Amino acid sequence: MNDRHVALVRAFFEALARRDLAVMERCYHPDVSFGDPVFQEVEGRDRVMAMWRLRLGVRDGLHADFGDVAADDHTGTARWTARYAFGRTGRRVVDEIDSLFRFEDDLIVRHHDDYDFRRWSKMALGRPAGVLFGWTPMFRKTIRDRAHQALDAASWEEVSAWPASGAS
């Protein structure tokens, strides 16, 4: 057990629960990569944080509870629950998520979340759409493509809002 890494993962989830993006960002290594069933691979701290801003900006916000944190010198795990309203339908979603972490320089360099996509689609889309389509590769690709389009748009809006270099 590595107490520093356990404290780091706890700090990340406590910040997520408070919607404190600045603290979340400080937990991540600059070269962090994130993956889950929707955002399969997101690379770099700026882009990963843009993804979290999208997720925290959902209707009624994202509410997180966590537990079962464990870590050693190289890897860590946690279990957390995300509660939110899915933007397209307004339906309530409760995801049970298993997180895996890898550490470098006492920061999170890899964060992977896993949850049941089929179960998610039933909650997010309801019946019959979520039941009929939630398991199909085409449906998953559509959801992933929309998520990455939203991430690309959010990332571009953040970059374009920055002042030009040399501006005061």
TrEMBL record:
<feature type="domain" description="SnoaL-like">
    <location>
        <begin position="9"/>
        <end position="111"/>
    </location>
</feature>
<dbReference type="InterPro" id="IPR032710">
    <property type="entry name" value="NTF2-like_dom_sf"/>
</dbReference>
<dbReference type="InterPro" id="IPR037401">
    <property type="entry name" value="SnoaL-like"/>
</dbReference>
<protein>
    <submittedName>
        <fullName>Nuclear transport factor 2 family protein</fullName>
    </submittedName>
</protein>
<dbReference type="Pfam" id="PF12680">
    <property type="entry name" value="SnoaL_2"/>
</dbReference>
